[in-house]
Specification:
By secondary structure, the chain is α/β, with parallel strands linked by helices. It is built from six helices and five strands. Helix 2 links the parallel strand 2 and strand 3.
């Protein structure tokens, strides 16, 4: 039987408990999950790639059947190269839907053999974004329970 592989792409700047929630949900459906960190210079990330890999690795230590990689270029090309059957995208609110829907349709047009699977996070993370976490941390607010411990520590270091 063919191994079911999913790619979960994002900038993960930084990884949040919402991301972890989606990774765990994806592992219930797929045999392997590739956490694919996008090189996206337009987003001007707070953390460099090495720091993001370190935080994701530490945050997912107890999870099996995951790989953490980086990619450039088109997501469907990367997914095809990895022999993935699906791209995982999280939908937090209705506001996410239009953009994600457009991307899913374009990815299908580029390669109709790779499906986009939309997952909703637990209710407690439905409002959570990396941008919100960074803003709270920048103003010395508590991000306890929103991010893994290593991320909390790294954000405090960045915003000393």
């Amino acid at each position: 039987m063919k191994k079911k592989i999913a790619v979960y792409p994002g900038t993960f700047d930084p990884i949040t408990n919402g991301h972890i929630d989606l990774i765990e949900r994806t592992l219930r459906i797929f045999d392997e999950v590739i956490i694919a960190i996008a090189h996206n210079p337009r987003k001007m990330p707070l953390f460099n790639i090495k720091e993001r890999i370190e935080m994701i690795t530490s945050s997912t230590k107890g999870l099996r059947n995951i790989k953490i990689e980086t990619f450039d270029g088109l997501l469907v090309d990367y997914a095809k190269k990895k022999k993935a059957q699906a791209i995982i995208r999280g939908l937090r609110a209705v506001s996410d839907f239009e953009y994600e829907f457009q991307m899913a349709l374009m990815n299908r047009k580029l390669d109709n053999k790779i499906e986009t699977v939309f997952l909703m996070p637990s209710e407690e993370y439905s409002y959570l974004t990396s941008s919100i976490v960074k803003e709270i941390a920048a103003f010395k607010g508590s991000i306890n329970g929103l991010v893994p411990k290593i991320v909390d520590k790294k954000l405090k270091e960045k915003f000393k």
